[in-house]
From TrEMBL:
InterPro entries: AB_hydrolase, AB_hydrolase_1, AB_hydrolase_fold
Keywords per UniProt: Hydrolase, Signal
Protein's UniProt name: Alpha/beta fold hydrolase
Domain of life: Bacteria
The AB hydrolase-1 domain, residue ranges: 232-346
Organism: Mucilaginibacter mali
Pfam families in the record: Abhydrolase_1
Amino acid sequence: MLKLLTTAFAMFIFSQLFAQNTGGHTSVDNGYNLDFEKIEPGVALPSLWSRFNEAKGYRCEAVTDVQHRGNQSVVVERISEAADPFASVVNVIPAKYEGKEIEFKAWLKYQDVQYGMGLLIRIDDANAQTIEFRSMANQKITGTKDWAQYSIKAKIPAGAQTIYVATILSGRGKMWIDDAEVLIDGKDIGQAKINPGYNPNPPKYGSNILDGHKVYLKDAEIYYETYGSGEPLLLLHGNSQSIRAFSYQIGELSKKYKVIAVDSRGQGKSTDATTGPLTYDKFADDMKQLMDTLRIKKANILGWSDGGNTGLIMAVKYPEHVNKLAIMGANLFPGTEAVSDTTLKQVKEGLAHLQTLNDANSKMEVRLFNMLLSEPHLTFDEIKTIKAPTLVMAGEHDVILDSHTRAIAAAIPNAKLVIFTGASHYAPVEEPLWFNRTVLQFLDR
């Protein structure tokens, strides 16, 4: 229904802009140089530490005249009135450890800080998309203070690939950092268990050169990627999304099925040469042509949001091509009988803003948002004709009304209904293990 909503904007803002302890701590040797003592000759920062941004107008380097313990610390200081808004020094850690929570602790000292300073944790997935972010920006730590230990914690979400632990200074002032620690579920990272399933070089879903292909239609180029082997399983993403939306599903599903993940017309790497209104019927026709081109007579379909709408239309319009159908957060028609008032209001507000922009991407977004407000046009009588085994899913707090989801499941003969407790429209990301298990159990039966 909507773009995959994250706190990315807040993350960006916070990244641009701690419990005192009088005792010392001897960290296990974890190889991440958290005591800042290892440094290569002629290099300003200690080994494994670097500037997070270019940070013009700031000094970021190891110093020996001030330290909490040992021979040196790292100083971050603004030295020019024409400086960038902030400076940050970071250590990059692979998310290869088993655990649910990470804690970053460090001793900090600061002087004449204008806007704020502190610690931050950022966690990215395999596509370099930020999926978790915590900072101390809201504490607005300013002024001057001697050494004290500060701490920040963050959840380690499913799909974590890279962890950034950093310190940040915003505006005028000076700060020092020393004797840092990284803890996984309360244990020093040097003692944390390694996750045997961690892949240091995972595929880049949605931009995988080796597994990416295109089907050329008369008015569009449809990009898709294939993974695994077995029965074909077509993955259809939501509005304004791409193959990346299924980053937490492709790996698991491709262990048993030949996954064909598709960028819908005009989204991701797929193109669209038309200029008129977009429809889910057109999307369904595209998938029919893609299957015909690939000589796939019948496929399982997993559709999320707009992809679920397309899947329903395919099951009605091209029943001979649909083996099993799993839909997440789908609707039969637009309006308040199916979609929450709040969501429709957000779409209309987003559309009003997009209509003020003239770039090609915004123009496509206008067409996609208009489709949300005017499509689809399915009826309950139509979906009663669906013969494919069907799994109907939604989050407990989905943008699609619970009554509408349940009515869809009740109308499709012998459909199975699953509501993900505590989850929203984005259950595939919020509860990937539960979601994947549910889909596989349905497809395997």
